Amino acid sequence: MPLSAYFRFFIVLLWISGASVDAYITAITANRRQPHRQYRNWPRCNLSMKTKVGVVGLPNVGKSTLFNALSRQSIAAAENYPFCTIEPNTSPIAMPDDGRLERLAVMAGSRRAVSATLELVDVAGLVKGASRGEGLGNKFLATIRECDVILHVIRTYVDDDIVHVHGRVDPVGDADVVNLELLLADLAHVQRRLDRRTCNGIERDVLSKVEECLVEGRPARTLGLSLEEGQSIKSMGLLTLKPVIYAFNVDEVDLLLDREESLQRAKESMGRIQYCDPEKDSFVLVSAKLEADIGELSENETAKYFESLGSDGLPDNLLSHNSVPKLVKDMLGLSLVYTGPGVPASRSQTTKSHLLGQPAMRAHDFAGRLHGDIQSGFMQAEVIDSASLLEGEGYAGAKSAGRLRTEGREYTLQDGDVILIKWK
Ligand SMILES: Nc1nc2c(ncn2[C@@H]2O[C@H](COP(=O)(O)OP(=O)(O)OP(=O)(O)O)[C@@H](O)[C@H]2O)c(=O)[nH]1
Ligand SMILES: [Mg+2]
């Protein structure tokens, strides 16, 4: 009998038994979504998940300009009118390490150096009343729920040609508006979940606590939830549970010439932002316009640009493509480890940096992140701190001098480690 005849026969059987085809299809897809029995009791594996940074702020404050500066490309449209961004922009941004990756690649004789990346997400601007549908509303915040950190851009530069949605520059007032909208978006999200009968046990208890906190006008992260409590509501992606980096977008001149005063002003503003959590939130000075401008100039032109502003230039580590990812790394307790040195040239010609999250990763799990075969054939790992490796004559030299450690599968990787896994 041809296959289609079998299928028709099956449908008739279902119809006779009173089940609808829809129910049958739902049953098949639901079954497919179930993990294979063998993996059901395994911890959820998030090894390949990228750390995401979501950019929020009022419209026209410089979010997309900063996004372009951080990604060092002109991806997002950044024009002088509110709601220029409608659809989210995403881009990987390299994790800087003061040139360690390049130096390791040169030492290892690799042809390529591949940097670990964070993922940056730029969304539309939030306005007062977004929770009631003002501006572009707040539905686009769903994209930010998937992020690990919020980068909150605040306009502090004065430029009469650039429209401000409230008609005046007020960093603290603007931050309060955006924070309140994030809080209201969370409150609606939590209440929708609490209305469902499927929300019970620890999830219901924790969400009730969070609701109370939000109603009082405090971000959920001020509750200091335990690890278990946090896990029970993790899938909600609550915005006010995420750590925040406030990016004060200052004037070019303020960043170059009045840096100390600008830092002082930003610190003082942090103290006055209403829903700011001084324990967990952090801040950084950026000049989105300056960084986007110099990103398009040659070295010579950049020198002239700085000269025209009466400055010798800006150390690279003060530029946001360096400072912001480093801040994210510190805030989330991420670590950067390297592979490549020590691998025979016939097997690989690439030195790579890898960003690892919390809790710290064991060597055996890391092997799985590289390749399933490396994990299943794991024998041991050779480990050395990258700074110590770079001090010497190369990998072979470090090995013969006995500076490499031999570690087993339980070894917990440390920030800055260079690891070479031996496998069968
Ligand atoms: N003078 C000055 N202008 C800036 C600065 N940052 C951004 N701008 C200008 O402000 C305007 C808006 O910048 P965008 O990056 O599009 O702002 P946005 O926050 O993404 O705006 P929406 O997508 O509409 O929410 C552009 O014309 C930028 O050139 C800055 O630091 N100084
Ligand atoms: Mg934009």
Automatic annotation (TrEMBL):
NCBIfam families assigned to the protein according to its UniProt record, in alphabetical order: redox-regulated ATPase YchF
InterPro entries: ATPase_YchF/OLA1, Beta-grasp_dom_sf, G_OBG, GTP-bd, P-loop_NTPase, TGS-like, TGS-like_dom_sf, YchF_C
OBG-type G domain: residues covered: 51-306
UniProt keyword annotation of Glycosyltransferase present: no
Record-linked CDD domains: YchF (cd01900)
UniProt-listed Gene3D superfamilies: 3.10.20.30, P-loop containing nucleotide triphosphate hydrolases (3.40.50.300), TGS-like domain (1.10.150.300)
Entry protein name: OBG-type G domain-containing protein
UniProt keyword Cell wall biogenesis/degradation present: no
Superkingdom of this protein's organism: Eukaryota
